Amino acid sequence: MDTTKYSFIKKKAIFVWLNIKTAGRGRRGRQWLSPFAGQIMFSFYWTFDPKKSIEGLSLVIGLAIAEVLNVQVKWPNDILFDERKLGGILVEIANHKNGMLNLVIGIGINVSLSKQTEISQPYAEVCEIDPDVERQTLLPKLIQHLYTRLNIFEKNGINTEFQQAWQSYNAFSNSEVKVLTEQGVISGIEKGIDERGYLKVLCGNKIQMFNGGEVSLRKK
């Protein structure tokens, strides 16, 4: 159940802000809950030219949020502060109407959770960064920068400039990591992303590439 919805339209996108979310869904089908007024939780509808690749889109969203909050990103779609999860991103294809690729992008960011909130992993809150944070002030800043980053992505894709910017916020940059795949666990040194948004991991003297899908990334 979603309650207290606020929606508004910006050129090319429709944004919906939720005050409570009790039946949300995260990456790989995980449950995603939002207690009343404890998070910024919003979704928006965005259209892309189907001839263009949307690989790496979650990285674009993550970088935009990290730049506004001055926090870090973890490939492919987590926002971190002090090595704890601050927020997450989910991108889904809605339909292909009107000859366009229509996406729904969902974002959740912990702002100030009650002490009774139960989360099964270490988590961070924006109030640790800014004790005076107000959701009503922060949300427009996030949306404006998301809009800017998405428009740049449509024109330039995951170019060298973006790769360098993303790497500067990468929490696992040059760290020893484990990549959990369906075939097993692969260890190496995390080396950022390529022009498709794929993860680069140095295994011995060879770079291996990984895309999102059913792959998870952990520090060793």
From TrEMBL:
Q: Which residues form the signal peptide?
A: none
| SUPFAM superfamilies referenced in this protein's UniProt entry, alphabetically | C-terminal domain of transcriptional repressors, Class II aaRS and biotin synthetases
The entry's cellular-component GO terms read: cytoplasm
* InterPro entries, sorted: aa-tRNA-synth_II/BPL/LPL, Biotin_CoA_COase_ligase, BPL_C, BPL_LPL_catalytic, Transcriptional_repressor_C
Sorted alphabetically, which Pfam families does this protein's record hold?
Answer: BPL_C, BPL_LplA_LipB
Keywords, comma-separated and alphabetical: ATP-binding, Biotin, Ligase, Nucleotide-binding
Ranges for domain BPL/LPL catalytic: 1-154
Q: What class of enzyme is it?
A: ligase
Would I find Ligase among this entry's keywords? yes
Catalytic activity entry: biotin + L-lysyl-[protein] + ATP = N(6)-biotinyl-L-lysyl-[protein] + AMP + diphosphate + H(+)
Q: For this protein, what is the EC number?
A: 6.3.4.15
Keyword match Glycosyltransferase: no
User: A GO molecular-function term, please?
Assistant: ATP binding
Entries under NCBIfam families matching the protein = birA_ligase (TIGR00121), PRK11886.1-2 (NF008847)
Q: What is this protein called?
A: biotin--[biotin carboxyl-carrier protein] ligase
Q: Which organism is it from?
A: Haemophilus influenzae
- Source species taxonomy: Bacteria, Pseudomonadati, Pseudomonadota, Gammaproteobacteria, Pasteurellales
